């Protein structure tokens, strides 16, 4: 494919995809709401073209996407405004179609599945979200897949579990890394002894670029699992051990989140999604590996080392 536009490029996954495109020598466009944030993140890469859009202006999406052959939708919304996910998705899809974009990849989450029925969740697992946020994410996926079914644009959805990495400021694990470096107690979303998996953000970019270039990828959804099953407690132990400290952890479960949620919309949302900590959705990505080949995944130990090194350099 030709030029790829990253809509909502300022986040960790957007930076990972941009890095993969840049490593391949491919020009790309980053689209976001803040010109200053995009300049700070991508201003030094001569392959990056910067465009700004305004979600309040539906036509601005088409202008920002004009000339791109493929797009990746990475747009985030405030956790207390999840009703905006399908609204923004519809706007970007219409803009992409108007601009003549051929292919679109939506980066999704495990939320649309709801409670898992199987130990490993494949793409054909029922999508029966029992939470408001899950329903909004399902509505977003439905819009994306309907656009393909109607022949308007080729689309696909790539679902990721929770992530972490050098640019993962919005990861719920970011505070854990910061606490370990500062020698402080880490606030964690409990319970922390249940199985869980995480994607190291730099691993996502090369997989997304391969997906964009694979015609057979479009018209359905795909899962990308983490680097293995772990627990939050074990993950925390590895982080603190790497900096030579004993773990100091303060887990907060659903009851505590609900209490804080009386005053904080973010905590209220985390309480709603707390089932993911007690009934974790562990993804099966064998279909994706069959489609595009082996999926390179950084081990948790190496990913933790690289994340701590990056955060230490930034602090210095």
In words, what does this structure look like?
The protein is an alpha/beta fold. It has a domain at 4-163 and 201-225 and 281-296: NAD(P)-binding Rossmann-like Domain (Rossmann fold). The protein has helices at residues 12-23, 35-42, 59-65, 84-99, 132-149, 174-182, 201-212, 232-242, 254-261, 265-272, 275-278, 286-292, 300-315; strands at residues 4-7, 28-32, 48-52, 70-73, 103-108, 154-159, 162-164, 186-189, 195-196, 198-200, 221-223, 230-231, 249-252. The strands form four sheets. Strands 3-2-1-4-5-6-11 form a seven-stranded parallel β-sheet, sandwiched between helices. Strands 7-10 form a two-stranded parallel sheet. α5 (132-149) links the parallel β5 (103-108) and β6 (154-159). The longest helix has 18 residues, at 132-149. The termini are far apart. The mean pLDDT is 95. Residues 6-224 form the NAD-dependent epimerase/dehydratase domain. One of its GO terms (molecular function) is aldehyde dehydrogenase (NAD+) activity. InterPro entries: Epimerase_deHydtase, NAD(P)-bd_dom_sf, NAD(P)-dependent_oxidoreduct. This is Epimerase.
Any chance you could write out the topology, listing elements then pairs?
Elements: E1 4-7, H1 12-23, E2 28-32, H2 35-42, E3 48-52, H3 59-65, E4 70-73, H4 84-99, E5 103-108, H5 132-149, E6 154-159, E7 162-164, H6 174-182, E8 186-189, E9 195-196, E10 198-200, H7 201-212, E11 221-223, E12 230-231, H8 232-242, E13 249-252, H9 254-261, H10 265-272, H11 275-278, H12 286-292, H13 300-315
Parallel strand pairs: 1-2, 1-4, 2-3, 4-5, 5-6, 6-11, 7-10, 8-13
Antiparallel strand pairs: 9-12
Helix pairs in contact: 1-7, 3-4, 4-5, 8-13, 9-10
């Amino acid at each position: 494919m030709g030029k790829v536009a990253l809509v909502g490029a300022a986040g960790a996954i957007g930076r990972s995809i941009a890095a993969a495109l840049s490593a391949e020598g491919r020009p790309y466009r980053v689209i976001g709401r803040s010109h200053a944030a995009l300049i700070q993140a991508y201003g030094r890469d001569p392959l990056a073209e910067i465009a700004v859009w305004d979600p309040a202006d539906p036509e601005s999406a088409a202008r920002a996407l004009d000339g791109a052959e493929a797009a990746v939708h990475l747009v985030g919304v405030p956790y207390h405004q999840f009703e905006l996910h399908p609204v923004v998705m519809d706007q970007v899809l219409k803009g992409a179609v108007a601009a003549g974009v051929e292919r679109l990849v939506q980066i999704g989450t495990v939320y649309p599945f709801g409670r898992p029925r199987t130990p490993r969740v494949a793409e054909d697992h029922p999508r029966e979200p029992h939470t408001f946020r899950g329903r909004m994410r399902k509505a977003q996926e439905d819009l994306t897949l309907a656009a393909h079914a109607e022949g308007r644009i080729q689309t696909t959805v790539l679902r990721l579990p929770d992530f972490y990495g050098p640019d993962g400021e919005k990861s719920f694990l970011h505070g854990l890394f910061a606490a370990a470096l500062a020698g402080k107690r880490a606030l964690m979303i409990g319970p922390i002894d249940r199985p869980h998996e995480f994607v190291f953000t730099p691993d996502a970019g090369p997989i997304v670029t391969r997906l964009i270039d694979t015609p057979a990828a479009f018209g359905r959804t795909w899962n990308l699992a983490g680097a293995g099953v772990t627990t939050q407690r074990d993950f925390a132990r590895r982080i603190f051990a790497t900096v030579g400290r004993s773990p100091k952890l303060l887990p907060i479960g659903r009851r505590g989140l609900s209490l804080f949620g009386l005053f904080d919309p973010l905590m209220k949302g985390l309480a709603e999604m707390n089932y993911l900590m007690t009934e974790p959705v562990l993804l099966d990505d064998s279909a994706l590996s069959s489609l595009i080949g082996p999926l390179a995944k950084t081990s948790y130990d190496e990913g933790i080392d690289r994340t701590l090194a990056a955060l230490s350099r930034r602090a210095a």
